[in-house]
Amino acid sequence: MPYKGGEISVFGLTPGRGLMRSAQQTVEYYVAAHGLDGSGTTVDLPRKHRWDPTSVERTVWARDGSQVVVFYKTNGGGHVVPQPVYRWPRFLGRTTEDLNAPVAIWEFFVQAAGVQVQQHL
């Protein structure tokens, strides 16, 4: 699925699967749906390896100190789930270790649900 939106296809070989919003349009939709405005607060995540050409930006839109919309942008990464454990096939592009997406997703929903979870890692 293209980051900038457009036609959905698998490696350009299967056109006609419909159109999708860009990542930016998707973020704008959720920000507006939650009654938020502005550009959010963006920080660069710490780099794990100097040799790694990827980087990750995290932008948060919050209300009353609670994260409402969080957007992670991986620069230089491929079409993979960012995390430090599994290496995806090279044809999918680079995998950054600067973000552990499964953990970030879990933490977002736990916080949104207001659940207290004991850290076991």
Outline the structure in words.
This protein is an alpha+beta fold. Helix content is 20%, strand content 22%. It has two helices and five strands. The chain has helices at 23-33, 101-113; strands spanning 6-7, 19-20, 41-44, 55-63, 66-75. The protein has a three-stranded antiparallel beta sheet. A two-stranded antiparallel ribbon has the order 1-2. Strand 4 (55-63) and strand 5 form a beta hairpin. The chain is globular and about 45 Å long. It starts with 5 loop residues before the first strand and ends in an 8-residue tail after the last helix.
Q: How much β-strand is present in the residues?
A: 15-25%
How do the strands of the widest beta sheet line up side by side?
3-4-5
Number of domains: 2
Mean pLDDT: 87
Radius of gyration: 16 Å
Major sheet size, sense and barrel closure: 3 strands, antiparallel
- What is the count of helical runs? 2
Query: Which regions have little confidence, pLDDT < 50, spanning 5+ residues?
Result: none
Shape: globular
Distance, first to last CA: 33 Å
Secondary-structure element string = EEHEEEH
**What proportion of the residues is helical, as a percent range?**
10-25%
Structural class of the secondary structure composition?
A: alpha+beta
Q: Find the count of extended strands (DSSP E, 2+ residues).
A: 5
